[in-house]
Each structure stands twice: as C-alpha cells, then as structure tokens.
C-alpha cells in the first residue's frame, strides 16, 4: 500500500480521546485513526454502522 502523509489539525480534546482509545485498544495513534476511518467508511470488513448508531441516536 502506498501511503500519503497529511498534516491534520484537530482540537486538543479530540486528540486526547483518540490517544486514550488507541492506548485502550493497544494500537498506535496512527493505527487507531486508520481503523476508525476504515470503519466509518465501511472498509473494515463490512458496512459501517449508520451515523449516530454507536451513540444511541434513533
């Protein structure tokens, strides 16, 4: 796979949440972000949940 480097600006609180989740999942921050993006885009082994499904929206 060819990789593309990007600079991403995100709020400090979101960064902290990503770091915490990556640590809990025993992944690097980069791997966690890739996992979340693939899941959101439906590329991690199937269809992604509809928006809001994981946080309880109808």
Protein topology:
Elements: H1 12-24, H2 29-40
Helix pairs in contact: 1-2
Domain Arc-like DNA binding: 3-41
Keywords: DNA-binding
Organism: Actinomadura bangladeshensis
Give short descriptive properties of this protein:
single chain; 58 residues; mainly alpha
What's the short story on this structure?
This is Arc family DNA-binding protein. Keywords: DNA-binding. The mean pLDDT is 83.
Assign an overall shape: globular
Approximate strand percentage: under 5%
What is the helix/strand order?
A: HH
Instruction: Tell me how many strands there are.
Output: 0
Helix content: 40-55%
Mean pLDDT: 83
Total count of helical runs of at least 4 residues: 2
Unreliable stretches (pLDDT < 50, length at least 5) are none
Largest sheet: none
Radius of gyration: 13 Å
Distance from first to last alpha carbon: 37 Å
Structural class comes to: mainly alpha
Pfam families: Arc
GO molecular function: DNA binding
GO biological process, one term: regulation of DNA-templated transcription
Organism: Actinomadura bangladeshensis
